[in-house]
Amino acid sequence: MDKFGMSDLRQLTEPHEGPCVTICMATHVAGADEPQDAVRLKNLAERVEQQLADGWLRAPEARDLLASIRDLPADHGFWQARSHGLALFLDRDSLRRFRVPVRLDELALVNRRFHVKPLLPLVTSSDRFFILALSQNNVRLFEATQHEVEQVEVAELPRRMDEALNLDGADRGSQSHFAKKGGKGKQSSVFHGQGGNRDSHKEELAQFFRMIDAALVPVLRDENAPLVLAGVDYLLPIFRKVCHFMHLLKPELAGNCDHLSAHQIHEKVWPLVQPVFTENRENSVAKYRQLAGTGKTSDDIRHALPAAFDGRIETLFVASDRQLWGVCDPQGQVIDIHDTQQSGDDDLLDAMAVQTLLHGGVVHAIDSREIPSPEAVAAVMRF
């Protein structure tokens, strides 16, 4: 799987000298369907070539531009790493390819800019979160969405308590071991010795966790995405007492995660945070409906698109299953809207979603039937 993040979105939305080719398609994760996927890509490339030859390039130039895409069907190694979707972005300078964990509808499009809306679910902040896997022997921070997870490298993050506190060889005054307690995966620490040693161990943990918290501050300082804790249950309340991050969620994954991969942790954590995101979206819908008619919302593309370019949209609901073809100026003022795509048109919904994200707004790219408006957009304004 290829990670698609905000840096990729920014690069794809920078001005490019056309033509810009966007190809999207669903793929099979594994199995004997490689030839079928390759044939479908070949057919999409042929559709693009016809579009290129229709007003963009001469036929030989179109064939030359598409050479890197035409080579992919025969690249067995490329198809071995399939995911649920494939997105290709081609211009005169480069081919960017992303095998992504979301199923993409077929799309073959040539335009002055790339069409990125199908990949917005991978970067929208509406389901983005962090996971902190805590233990005395292995501390890891992950950034995740519903569809993917990636470990974040944090400078100065202590990994092991004994190394961070220089406890190797120290006389700890007590012995302890882990014992099963309660539900599956939960552990507690059994101490042998005087009660004071138990308090001493808790203070060492608190000191270790304060070091972790300090290392996370530069990473999480400007973040609104929530943080989920994962670790042995007796450790988590100790960390909560020293943590300064405002968006620490109550749901947590209790259990030893030291030997779990990032993917395994993600599989366990997502069911815990999904209700939180569902509630947030429902609250956003309720806020839109409450403010409708007050001038603080809009479902009019001619009003909402310039607001997106100005950074005035706080939350945007946009139809992921529709396009709205038209032309706008560099400030987002709509010049024309067409029922079907015409030469030089952009998908105005795509442009609005991208500008909202780039200005720090929240985007819900969802089925048009779920939008709290009869239109293809519904926006809550910051001001």
CATH topology of the largest domain: Nucleotidyltransferase, domain 5
**Average of per-residue pLDDT values:** 89
Give the CATH superfamily of the largest domain: eRF1 domain 2
How many domains comprise the coordinates? 3
Radius of gyration: 25 Å
Order of helices and strands: HEHHHHEEEEEEHEEHEHEHEHEEEEHEE
Number of helices: 11
Q: Are there runs of 5+ residues with pLDDT below 50, and where?
A: 173-195
Portion in beta strands = 15-25%
Proportion of helical residues: 25-40%
Please provide a written account of the structure.
The chain is of the alpha+beta class and 383 residues long. It has three domains: 6-119, Translation, Eukaryotic Peptide Chain Release Factor Subunit 1, Chain A; 129-274, 2-Layer Sandwich (Nucleotidyltransferase, domain 5); 292-381, 60s Ribosomal Protein L30, Chain: A (2-Layer Sandwich). 34% of the residues lie in helices and 23% in strands. It contains eleven helices and 18 strands. It has helices at 6-13, 34-53, 59-65, 67-70, 76-80, 161-164, 195-220, 236-242, 262-291, 301-310, 348-358, and strands spanning 20-26, 85-90, 95-100, 107-111, 129-134, 140-144, 149-152, 175-180, 187-192, 227-231, 253-254, 297-298, 313-319, 325-328, 334-338, 346-347, 362-366, 377-381. The strands form five sheets. It has a five-stranded mixed β-sheet with strand order 7-6-5-10-11, with helices on one face. Strand 8 and strand 9 form a beta hairpin. Helix 2 (34-53) runs antiparallel to helix 3. The longest helix has 30 residues, at 262-291. It is globular and about 80 Å long. It starts with 5 loop residues before the first helix and ends with a strand. The relative contact order is 0.11. Residues 173-195 have low confidence and may be disordered.
